[in-house]
Amino acid sequence: MDLRQVAVDQYESRESLIRRGVWKGDLYKTVDVNKGSRGWLWKTLVLDDDQEVKELMPVPILTEGSEDPTSAIVQSANRPRDNLIRRLTPVATKAHPLSQKQIGDMRDKGELEGQKVVEGDEDDEDGMSVSEKLEIIDLDLSRLMLDKIFQEPLVHARMKQIMYNFLMRKGASSPSSYKQGYHEILGIIFLQLDEARRNNEGGNNDNSNNNNDDDDGDAVMMNQVLCIFEKIMKQMVGVFYNETRLIKWDSDVFQPILNNSCPELYKLIYSNQHHHTNIIWLIRWTRLLFIRELPRDYTLIIWDHILTFTYPLDTLIACIIVTLLVNNYQNLMEKIEDHNDIVEFMLHYSLNSSSMIDCVELCKMSGNLCELWYLQDFTAMKLVADSFLKIRFNVENKTTPKAVKIDPNRKRLEDRLRKRVKQTLLTKETK
């Protein structure tokens, strides 16, 4: 069934589509959003109806000795991509960013304290020239293996133009910093919207057709990709793509949520004084939003929920990771002996995971944890995880005193949460 028709028939507003269609999961029972419909869904969730289409700045070809993009020539889409990188590591680091000394120095300077993140105020001075940034973007895009379309010269050029415009978003004469991972996030968004555009054109993939209608359609699609990319990166760059902020997020958000939800897993993962090595896997999990860890269709449903922006991204990502850990409670408790095992397990999560919770239910449980975290209801957070473990793995909560008299209101809350988790698991088993 056509997604648009379903949306018109069943959801009276975008808020209803978000609440009932995505978070309640009704949408996934009605249509297969993986068949060319996800691009339309993401545009509906993220873009305003009156979204202004602006012409993207062309990617410059800098003349020798010039670093001024405003005086450059427009890059041809079919320009040969030979000798793209002259210097792969133009900036040398002075110290390992995750070393104990480096973390201690940052604490001494107050860099790990709670200062407000201002969009674009960090990492701009990365020491790279415009041409070096464009060369690195070229190299990353040429190695993008998400889909074969990224090897097409025209698609490569479009991706590069979108990325260049994103880096120039502040209107300065020099782009802000670029980090590896940006191109994979952009690639996923481009892939969904480009597939929707091609389906609307009747599956015509002929890139040689350059009439005005096609050009206008491409321009609109590229603007939409850029807008979605900007909105999702606005919440990611200041936290997950900055090493100092990522360490602070780990200590202030992820660890407390994990500890309050499942103390046993927290002790297992953060029991050693060298637990900052967890940043090694958290970097990839957070920066790539599970692209490498989970099956593509599964990950895209998580992205559907992320793009509703119902919860702050940093908190939602923490709760999703906690839920995935709880879902693999037995594996972790049985296989992990030291921090090397943790890193190995988490960097090969798809191979080590024995089973996967239904993705919509994963997001529901993560959303519940988000709400309880903001309410500071730590007892209920633990109850959610305990109920899940009891029903799924028959794991009893060893920390709850058995002789304590439970308040009737809390008893009703427990029963309601247990019933919800049980229905979730039964629904998954019958599929």
Overview of this protein structure:
This protein is mostly helical. The chain has helices at 3-10, 14-23, 26-30, 38-46, 100-108, 130-142, 153-167, 182-200, 212-240, 243-261, 263-269, 279-287, 296-306, 313-327, 329-335, 339-347, 349-352, 359-374, 378-393, 408-430; strands at residues 60-61, 73-74. Strands 1-2 form a two-stranded antiparallel sheet. The longest helix has 29 residues, at 212-240. The radius of gyration is 23 Å and the shape is globular. Residues 32-310 form the Rab-GAP TBC domain. GO terms for molecular function: GTPase activator activity. This is Rab-GAP TBC domain-containing protein.
Which helices and strands occur, and which strands form pairs?
Blueprint: H1 3-10, H2 14-23, H3 26-30, H4 38-46, E1 60-61, E2 73-74, H5 100-108, H6 130-142, H7 153-167, H8 182-200, H9 212-240, H10 243-261, H11 263-269, H12 279-287, H13 296-306, H14 313-327, H15 329-335, H16 339-347, H17 349-352, H18 359-374, H19 378-393, H20 408-430
Antiparallel strand pairs: 1-2
Helix pairs in contact: 4-8, 6-7, 7-9, 8-9, 10-11, 10-14, 14-18, 18-19, 19-20
Unreliable spans: 70-104, 109-124, 202-210, 399-405
Shape assignment: globular
Count of discrete structural domains: 3
Briefly note the structural class of the backbone: mainly alpha
- The proportion of residues forming helix, as a percent range, comes to 55-70%
Total helical elements: 20
What is CATH's topology name of the largest domain? Cyclin A, domain 1
Helix/strand order: HHHHEEHHHHHHHHHHHHHHHH
Q: Report the CATH architecture of the largest domain.
A: Orthogonal Bundle
Kindly provide the name of the CATH class of the largest domain: Mainly Alpha
Number of strands: 2
Q: First CA to last CA: what distance?
A: 20 Å
Average predicted confidence as pLDDT: 80
- The whole-angstrom Rg is 23 Å
- Into which percentage range does the β-strand content fall? under 5%
For the largest beta-sheet, the strand count, sense and barrel status come to: 2 strands, antiparallel
